[in-house]
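From the methods appendix. Each design record in this collection lists the tokenized structure first, followed by the designed amino acid sequence. Records were kept in a plain field format so they could be parsed without special tools. The example shown here is representative of the layout used throughout.

RECORD:
FOLD TOKENS (746 positions):
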């Protein structure tokens, strides 16, 4: 314990007033975010929130199994840790452990081992045993987009030496069995030195991979509800379907349920896992440290065997908070830094490494990675883009402009706020004054709604405040703006893999805990914002990225994140007027040979504005549409705005019709599938479809695309909903539509 500890405040003592939260949450080991955050309400729970059961055994219980691999030339060397719980200290255990990997051969002399050892002071005994698995006998586990997620059942059985004693009547109490699902893969965090710093990227099964994903907060502010398997499944499937291969379990939440990690294993979603310490200082008293050591030991032990877990970080933003003096601690900085190191470097890090011999541990996020060691774990700039991971938020500059994103090695947080859909707010009859008050009340960001409104005004037509549709329009525009900002930033990061060594983009945040302004791409309850619809293309395995660089030139990148043989791609660039379906000009490029897992700069600083000047064309009247083909089939598309949309004077006042082409109900699964035809007489911008509130019986409705540019007369969109009993009759009038065109002509 550092000198003078008892006289030092544990800061922050209270959250910002705008949070409407509780004070001193960093003194208690409960979900930190349940006491309020800048995206969530204060709703701290009380009491036991996990199942309780009574266990009876005469011998021992297999409590946890850990699993670590060494990759040898012809085989896997597997270190299995079996945690036996006897309940009493210094107890002599005598019995055998049997090991089986179901469907896979284990050498006969490795299948059964004798155990004659004594439990520790906690009444536990760790038995470690090596298994040899031939490489040819198992398939690799791959992240989403790179291959299958092969999983195997590891069976371990304990038999007490008395089990065959005829005087023992209840044999079951002398036997304990456990089955754990495991996967065979390697995950290494590479940090080799460069001319200006260190790299920071994940190598999975010897393949360097760009990590695409988001940040996971608890699925509910109430811990007991956050373990709801149906909702967890919905959210993780939504991440998988958006082509994500990594989620960061953020340090202000909870250690998630076993089901969460099991599903991540099945879906190929790697987990960057924080320990549950966030945005605060914490005590370094002896009692607190002992409690934390037990917490970390138990949770890492429980989670460790999952192949989806890629990395541990001991906290979220606590190093950068101290260095940047978030809480006014500079007057006694040395003492707070000493406590910081005591907790994370001297207690939590070694406690993780005791249990997990398989993974890298970072002391904080953001951090300078291995360079932090040279800086004695307290960097002068924990946000140094030359090292480790960074968290980047910019609410001052125009987030639609790609030149503001300088990148880094790995961006583990970034994002922008928007409002949930108009129909999601709990306002009867959608009274606009009530809605305005509710939005203001639930906006917990200290910057309030300013950044959202500023970005709308910077780039989009701004509705009049006295308009009867003001909040309808602002909500829609906020989601368009959020989608454009996160799209722009993410695509810059994906394109900079070669030029700057950027190898990860995890936007903040995937989900929400209530209906409120936030950075999420999925509203609480499951409705997708425009951003989440877009993420499927933004994170696609095969993608084209284009933007105007700082020299006012056009750059185009071809991105391929998967494996397999070389592919031939053809690229077509259309110079398009805002009010015409047919392009003004067409630029084609010779077919390009695209190898696996690569980024190619197709167009380097093309003078698009010079071309337009020579053709006497006005930038504000035009945009670029880019299509990529393989075997004559289009598989990727993107767009580039050449001026701000609010300057697009050629946008047409579109006549738009919706037609329900078909409705199919699958009664066995209660899934309703609807085909919708969207017809326009001129190009429509950011076409947004939404079900009316009257369709409340329909659950988890998602469109196949939303917030899209429509540069053809008819666009087919599919919608899928859960409808118990398939009772709802979907009609065209049940779906509303909004476009930028409509707002431009109001």
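DESIGN:
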């Amino acid at each position: 314990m550092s000198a003078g500890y008892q006289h030092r405040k544990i800061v922050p003592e209270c959250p910002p007033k705008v949070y409407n939260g509780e004070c001193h949450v960093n003194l208690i080991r409960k979900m930190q975010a349940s006491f309020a955050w800048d995206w969530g309400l204060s709703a701290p729970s009380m009491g036991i929130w996990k199942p309780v059961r009574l266990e009876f055994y005469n011998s021992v219980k297999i409590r946890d199994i850990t699993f670590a691999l060494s990759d040898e030339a012809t085989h896997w060397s597997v270190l299995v840790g079996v945690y036996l719980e006897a309940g009493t200290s210094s107890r002599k255990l005598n019995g055998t452990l049997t090991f089986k990997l179901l469907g896979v051969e284990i050498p006969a002399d490795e299948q059964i081992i004798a155990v004659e050892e004594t439990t520790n002071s906690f009444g536990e005994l760790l038995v470690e045993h090596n298994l040899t698995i031939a490489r040819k006998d198992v398939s690799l586990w791959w992240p989403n987009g790179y291959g299958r997620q092969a999983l195997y059942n590891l069976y371990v059985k304990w038999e007490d030496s008395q089990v065959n004693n005829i005087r023992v009547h209840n044999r079951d109490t002398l036997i304990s069995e456990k089955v754990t699902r495991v996967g065979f893969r390697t995950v290494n965090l590479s940090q080799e030195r460069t001319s200006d710093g260190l790299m920071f990227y994940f190598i999975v099964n010897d393949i360097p991979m760009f990590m695409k994903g988001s940040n996971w907060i608890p699925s509910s502010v109430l811990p007991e509800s956050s373990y709801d398997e149906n909702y967890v499944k919905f959210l993780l499937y939504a991440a998988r379907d958006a082509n994500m291969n990594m989620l960061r379990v953020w340090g202000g939440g909870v250690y998630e349920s076993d089901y969460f990690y099991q599903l991540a294993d099945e879906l190929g979603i790697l987990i960057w896992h924080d320990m549950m310490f966030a945005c605060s200082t914490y005590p370094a008293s002896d009692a607190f440290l002992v409690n934390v050591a037990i917490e970390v030991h138990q949770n890492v032990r429980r989670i460790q065997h999952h192949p989806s877990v890629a990395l541990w970080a001991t906290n979220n933003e606590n190093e950068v908070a101290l260095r940047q003096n978030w809480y006014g601690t500079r007057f006694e900085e040395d003492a707070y830094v000493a406590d910081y190191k005591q907790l994370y470097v001297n207690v939590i890090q070694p406690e993780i490494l005791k249990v997990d011999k398989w993974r890298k541990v970072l002391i904080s996020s953001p951090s300078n990675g291995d360079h932090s060691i040279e800086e004695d774990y307290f960097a002068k700039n924990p946000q140094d883009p030359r090292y480790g991971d960074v968290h980047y938020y910019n609410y001052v500059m125009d987030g639609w402009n790609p030149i503001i994103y300088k990148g880094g090695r790995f961006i583990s947080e970034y994002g922008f706020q928007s409002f949930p859909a108009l129909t999601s707010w709990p306002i009867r009859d959608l009274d606009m004054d009530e809605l305005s008050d509710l939005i203001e009340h639930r906006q917990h960001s200290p910057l309030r709604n300013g950044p959202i409104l500023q970005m709308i005004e910077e780039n989009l037509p701004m509705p009049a405040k006295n308009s009867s549709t003001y909040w309808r329009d602002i909500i829609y525009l906020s989601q368009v703006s959020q989608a454009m900002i996160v799209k722009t930033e993410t695509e810059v990061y994906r394109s900079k893999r070669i030029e700057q060594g950027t190898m990860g983009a995890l936007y903040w945040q995937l989900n929400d805990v209530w209906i409120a302004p936030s950075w999420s791409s999925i509203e609480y309850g499951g409705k997708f914002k425009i951003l989440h619809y877009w993420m499927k293309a933004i994170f696609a395995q095969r993608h084209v990225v284009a933007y105007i660089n700082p020299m006012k030139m056009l750059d185009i990148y071809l991105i391929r994140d998967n494996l397999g043989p070389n592919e031939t791609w053809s690229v077509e660039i259309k110079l398009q007027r805002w009010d015409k379906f047919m392009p003004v000009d067409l630029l084609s490029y010779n077919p390009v040979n695209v190898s696996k897992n690569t980024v190619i700069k197709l167009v380097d600083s093309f003078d698009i504005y010079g071309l337009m000047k020579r053709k006497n064309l006005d930038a504000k009247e035009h945009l670029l549409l880019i299509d990529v083909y393989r075997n004559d089939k289009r598989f990727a598309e993107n767009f580039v705005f050449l001026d701000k949309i609010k300057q697009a004077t050629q946008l047409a006042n579109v006549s738009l019709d919706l037609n329900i082409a078909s409705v199919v109900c699958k009664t066995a699964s209660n899934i309703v599938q609807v085909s919708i035809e969207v017809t326009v007489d001129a190009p429509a911008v950011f076409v947004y479809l939404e079900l009316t509130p009257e369709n409340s019986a329909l659950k988890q409705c998602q469109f196949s695309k939303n917030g899209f540019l429509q540069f053809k007369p008819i666009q087919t969109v599919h919608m899928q909903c859960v409808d118990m009993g398939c009772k709802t009759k979907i009609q065209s009038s049940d779906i509303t539509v909004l476009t930028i065109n409509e707002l431009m002509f109001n």
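APPENDIX NOTE: The CA atoms of residues 564 and 596 lie 6 Å apart.
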